[in-house]
Specification:
The chain is mainly alpha-helical. It is about 65% helix and about 0% strand. It has one domain. α6 packs antiparallel against α7, α10 runs antiparallel to α12 and α10 packs antiparallel against α14.
Length: about 325
């Protein structure tokens, strides 16, 4: 394992800065992309090209009245928005952004990812129950059911990646893709993971937990001011984290395509030039998948709840198990 070329504290500060500011950037990009898809203008009043619109939204949320339901649980109602934000911030701890650029490299990084990402649903469920509203409660229950349905195929897709890498370390998984990205040797796993990542982030067409047609606003119906702002922040942070994980598990992380074949032409490992190249490649791939999240939202209509459950349990889960078994069998034949 390469020694970090910079302090893990500097990497942590940079990662947190990117995540905490990602919501403002992605919201602006989403509004622009949505406007383009729908043949309209989008934000163009606040600042040049509407660039200050996210700042205006934050100021509006700060000055809005913070309302708590009279018959709700005030303590849990206040704590609930913190869970999704905290889990998103913790997840980034084991993601490698470049050669030696990571906060920590634990040998069970994959298990850490699975454990932490599954905690975010507690905040949503807690918000639904603490609001003492039927719409919020149904949204929270839907979130719990959706998480259970899609955690399993997501976990099996990651397990198929672990078979190729022969390690639970995120750094080892990225390094195992130096010559061939996992998406080329495990395309079914990649598709399953991407679909499950959409569901885990509660993004269209899987945003049944906040479907306004039947649940008004879902789990955050009774939220306002910065409490709602924290849920809003968490949603876009999970989009960015999901894009980072797709990049890390299946698209080579910070490696260029087939980089092992021309590694001698790239900057020397451990130098600042190599670090900047790695970060640029990683953020470029992440940005593409963030765009994919936005593109899908404004292209594909929302599923019915029965379709959501059927897709997870009847199609993705059996397919992910079969994919895992086939890969394990092939690798066993190859390596004896």
């Amino acid at each position: 394992m390469e020694a970090p070329i910079v302090s893990s504290y500097i990497v942590m500060a940079g990662a947190l800065a990117v995540l905490l500011n990602s919501a403002a950037v992605v919201v602006y990009v989403e509004r622009r992309v949505a406007a383009f898809i729908q043949n309209r203008v989008g934000p163009n009043r606040v600042g040049p090209f509407g660039l200050f619109q996210p700042l205006a939204d934050v100021i509006k949320l700060i000055f809005k009245e913070d309302v708590t339901p009279i018959y709700g649980n005030r303590t849990l109602h206040t704590l609930a928005p913190m869970f999704p934000v905290i889990t998103a911030l913790i997840t980034v701890a084991v993601i490698p952004f470049g050669d030696g650029l990571f906060i920590t490299n634990i040998n069970v990084g994959v298990l850490f990812i699975l454990a932490v990402t599954s905690l975010g649903v507690y905040g949503v469920t807690m918000a639904g129950w603490a609001s003492n509203s039927k719409y919020s409660l149904l949204g929270g229950l839907r979130a719990a059911a959706q998480m259970l349905s899609y955690e399993l195929p997501l976990g099996m897709a990651i397990a198929s990646v672990v078979l190729f890498a022969a390690s639970l370390s995120m750094v080892d998984i990225v390094n195992s893709q130096l010559y061939w990205w996992h998406v080329f040797v495990n395309p079914i796993g990649a598709i399953i993971f991407i679909i499950a990542a959409f569901a885990e982030a509660n993004r269209t067409p899987f945003d049944l937990v906040e479907a306004e047609q039947e649940l008004v606003g879902g789990f955050h119906t009774e939220y306002s001011s910065m409490k709602f702002g924290m849920f809003f922040l968490a949603e876009y942070m999970h989009v960015v984290i999901g894009s980072m994980l797709i990049t890390t598990f299946f698209f080579g992380g910070y490696h260029l395509p087939f980089a092992g074949y021309y590694a001698h032409l790239l900057p020397e490992a451990g130098t600042w030039l190599k670090a900047m190249l790695d970060i640029a490649v990683f953020l470029g791939k992440t940005g593409f998948f963030v765009f994919l999240f936005i593109w899908v939202r404004w292209t594909i209509p929302r599923f019915k709840y029965t379709q959501l459950m059927s897709l997870g349990w009847s199609k993705l889960l059996p397919l992910s198990i079969l994919n895992f078994a086939v890969i394990a069998f092939i690798l066993m034949l190859i390596h004896g």
